[in-house]
Write a structure and sequence with these properties.
hydrolase; EC 3.5.99.3; MTA/SAH_deaminase; six-stranded mixed beta sheet; Urease, subunit C, domain 1; Metal_Hydrolase
């Protein structure tokens, strides 16, 4: 089995709701859900793991995910934070930015993959390797600030993503109206952060169908406040959840989910990292387990959980056992070793983990430049150095 081989696969004895069931993936899509499964392809026992859609991280800067948190908050806005921390000739920016952009993009992808993310919205310049990462990066257009010019695009027809109202000062509260004046609000536009928005702004977002991606951990760290999520929900504004980069945000999307659980009820919160997030990113076929949907899914070993929501919201990265993207294994751990094929193995926090992509070479280069880590909160090492 090569790294990109799709397999006809039946995973038996998995939990979608409560009772064990079976899921079959054929030709890269979910072909059958429920028991008894069709007798075709490879059969594996899911061991009672919870099977969930691959997670969607609606905001990240993949090229910055090797950085530690930067700065000494609070700040009035993100511009002030950027001016305070951007010192490319000093550590740690010097070492991280010394890596090639493609290497840094791969590490951002692995940061997400190791937390069960199969789709991520990258907010930065494009690169040829975005289509070769072990996670999906949908098409996008991006503005760094509401008053700026188009930063670039990747793919065709993607939504427009804009850092907006990322602050707590007076200027930040004018940015939604500034986008409206430029004709940039609407169902194909997505605001990132949305902290400094009032009731009139929320009404405007709801009327225009503009979505908001919330990044509570990053916002609380930098500004002591986050988006008015409850008001946005009540107004019917489409919402998704993002980690932001590790320079200000959480270590991974599972950690972000736990932080957000204090602000959002379980059912809508799960949607903010699965189906709702996928629709906002312009890929509504993702983020769900349904016949003919792409076979993106994760298996979580959380036997104490009583519901799928509980299994996800209480999940830790080490409970992740298997990640499939379009039916292709991207992360494999015990007890699913039969699916590892030609994936490369490293130790993640001491546990053997098989990953898609050139992880062995990348890890050797990373350790030679940045030392032993940890990187995004994880201890990564060659298998021979447990």
């Amino acid at each position: 089995m090569r790294q990109n081989d799709r397999v006809d696969l039946c995973v038996e004895n998995v939990r979608l709701i409560a009772a064990p069931t079976s899921v079959t993936i054929a030709g890269g899509v979910f072909a059958h859900i429920g028991s008894p499964p069709p007798r075709t392809g490879i059969y594996i026992d899911g061991g009672g793991c919870w099977l969930l859609p691959g997670l969607v991280n609606a905001h990240d800067h993949l090229g910055l995910d090797l950085l530690p948190r930067l700065g000494a908050p609070p700040y009035p806005n993100s511009i002030a934070w950027g001016e305070a921390v951007y010192r490319p000739r000093d550590s740690p920016l010097r070492e991280v930015l010394g890596l090639s952009y493609s290497e840094r993009l791969f590490w951002g992808a692995y940061r997400n993959l190791l937390a069960g993310v199969t789709t991520v919205q990258h907010h930065d310049r494009s690169h040829w390797c975005l289509g070769r990462l072990p996670v999906r990066v949908p098409a996008y257009r991006w503005l760094h600030r509401p008053a700026g010019s188009l930063g670039g695009s990747y793919g065709r027809g993607g939504p427009l993503f804009v850092h907006c109202a990322e602050g707590i000062d007076t200027a930040s509260f004018t940015e939604v109206q500034a986008l409206q004046a430029r004709g940039l609000l609407g169902p194909a536009s997505v605001l990132i952060h949305g902290i400094a928005i009032g009731d009139a702004d929320i009404d405007l977002l709801a009327r225009t169908g503009t979505a908001v991606v919330c990044c509570p951990t990053s916002n609380l760290f930098l500004f002591g406040r986050t988006a008015p999520i409850e008001k946005l929900q009540q107004a019917g504004v489409p919402l998704a959840l993002g980690t932001d980069s590790t320079a200000s945000g959480s270590l991974n999307l599972l950690e972000e989910l736990r932080a957000a659980s204090a602000l959002v009820e379980a059912a809508p919160l799960v949607g903010m990292v699965t189906a709702d997030a996928a629709r906002i990113l312009g890929v509504p076929q993702l983020g769900r387990i349904a016949p003919a949907a792409p076979g993106d899914c994760i298996l979580i070993d959380n036997p104490q959980a009583r519901t799928a929501e509980e299994a996800l919201l209480n999940a830790r990265p080490e409970q992740l056992r298997l990640v499939l993207v379009g039916g292709v294994p991207r992360l494999v751990r015990e007890p699913f070793m039969a699916l590892r094929g030609r994936l490369q193995a490293i130790a993640v926090d001491g546990e053997p983990t098989w990953l898609a992509g050139p992880i062995g070479l990348l890890l050797r280069r990373l350790r030679s430049r940045l030392g032993d880590g940890p990187y995004f909160g994880r201890r990564l090492a060659p298998l021979g150095r447990l």
